[in-house]
Amino acid sequence: MLRLDLVQEPRLLEIETNTRQHLGETQRMQWLGEVAVLQESLRHIADKKQQAERLRAQADRGEDGVTALG
Questions:
Q1: Which intervals carry biased composition (Basic and acidic residues) (predicted)?
Q2: How many CA atoms lie within 13 A of 22 on its CB side?
């Protein structure tokens, strides 16, 4: 389980960028198993980004700015 607050959101975006770069390399090398794993990772990252958006909306409403994401 990743515990995320909005301060950590830039790190999530950095992880996404690195994963996309690695995915491009694995696609060029035709490492199909690794491609599948990285694509799954990107799906999970997208979920976390959506959760971060909801967390931001909560913070904008003045609710608790930290929540467990998982």
A1: 51-64
A2: 16
